[in-house]
Specification:
The chain has 92 residues and is an alpha+beta fold. It has one domain. A four-stranded antiparallel sheet has the order 1-2-3-4. A hairpin with an 8-residue loop joins strand 3 and strand 4.
């Protein structure tokens, strides 16, 4: 069964694909059948710059346990960064 649960949002960062680094402008997160991961369903994340075509995309397929661990690791890491560094990073 497909859930069609999808979230997309603008991105500001960089990704490395087959042809090198490219700017990211969009992230899409969805729960669906994976193409390659050995799981019935996976949390899939596409980091992309759609204006540059399909080659400007980095995709990951994560098991539920790995996706939850990633969320926790991101939160834990950001929580540990000194406030002045986070403020400077948010200013760009």
């Amino acid at each position: 069964m497909c859930t069609y649960l999808t979230e997309s949002f603008p991105a500001d960062g960089s990704g490395k694909g087959a042809t090198g680094w490219f700017p990211l402008s969009q992230v899409t997160v969805y729960f669906d059948h994976p193409v390659h991961a050995q799981a019935e369903h996976s949390l899939n994340i596409d980091f992309a710059d759609p204006a540059r075509g399909p080659g400007a995309r980095v995709a990951v397929e994560l098991t539920v346990a790995t996706a939850r661990a990633l969320v926790a690791a991101i939160q834990s890491t950001l929580d540990a960064v000194p406030a002045e560094l986070l403020a400077a990073a948010q200013r760009g």
